[in-house]
Amino acid sequence: MHYTGTLYRNPYEPPSPLLEITQGCTHNKCKFCTMYVDVPFRMSPMEWIEEDVQEIAQHDLHTTRLQLVGADPFVLSFEHLKAICDVIHKYLPNVQVMTMAARVTNIKNKTVEQLKELKKMGITEVNIGVESGDDWTLDRIQKGYHANDIVEQVKKLDEAGIDYWLTFLNGVAGRSHSHEHALNSAKIFNQLHPTVVGTGGLTLFPGTELGEEAKRGEFDPLSEKEMMEELKVFLENLECDARLITHHTIAMNLSGNFLENKEKILKSLQNGIDNLDEKKLASIRNNKRTL
Questions:
Q1: Which of 151, 210, 232, 273 has the most crowded Cβ, counting Cβ within 10 A?
Q2: Mean pLDDT, the chain, as a whole number?
Q3: DSSP 3-state helix, strand, coil percentages of the chain (rounded to 5)?
């Protein structure tokens, strides 16, 4: 297999073979992330992809799922993704589900009709790290788009019938803009129809711009309690009929079908706020080194 550089798989998806179709991140400017800082973006050569699909077929011919990996492989054009799907179906005829990560900007170069065609070919779900629905926060962390872009582009996925995850990055706005980040993110999410809403707490990893700004006093990170209070504001205002998943850098493990469990989830969160061990949780977060 032609696995190169940093490789990340969605840990919440069912086990399935990983097929790398891009390397690096097309944006690579988010202030909280160094995952692909030393990995230039490029597309995997088609001969690599075909060789890797053949290798997967030798070991798991009857697989019905694939994860297409890279930071944001959905950036590839409709034509390029279609060619990759054709290769996959040639050697793995039972594949029905292909998932991958995406940026909001990746959707812009595809029409709704093209998205519908990709859905028919098996690209049924994308994972989108929107992080915030608040313009001030999006600019602050250099995401490269605004809240109206999120709604405009992601609604195309709704129309095409492609499922998607949306993530909320808890704490990324800092103390000064925490409430607006939480409230405006919920407002944007509520205009869309994600199958999963994921949230994780900001960790200031070594080497990130946001971490360096915090050292200089230019960024005011939230305490563990403040992070959970921000999450509560977000969830109180969230009305998405989706599954809720908390990622591995959050202080609590909250999960479930959100709307039917909203009261229970908020009660559990409030109990965590009332009884948290700030020192212990801060120590756990400070010992993390990567996502």
A1: 210
A2: 94
A3: 45, 15, 40
Residue from 168, 161, 171, 145 nearest 240 by CA: 168
Q: Which helix (H) or strand (E) holds 178?
A: helix 178-189
- Residues 156-176: pLDDT tens digits? 999 999 999 999 999 999 999
Q: Which residues of 121-136 are buried (b: 16+ CB within 10 A; e: fewer)?
A: bbbbbbbbbbbbbbbb
Which tops the pLDDT comparison, 253 or 258? 258
Torsion of CA 117, 119, 121, 122, to 10 degrees: 170
Across-strand partners of 244? 197, 256
CA distances from 12 to 16, 156, 201, 243 (A): 11, 24, 17, 12
Query: For residues 54 and 256, which has the higher predicted lDDT (pLDDT)?
Result: 54
Amino acid at 195: T
Q: Which CATH architecture has domain 18-286?
A: Alpha-Beta Barrel (3.20)
Residues 52 and 1: beta-carbon distance below 8 Å: yes
Least confident among 98-112, 182-196, 271-285: 271-285
For 98, the token pair is: 């292909």
- C-alpha angle 51-40-286 in degrees, rounded to nearest 5: 110
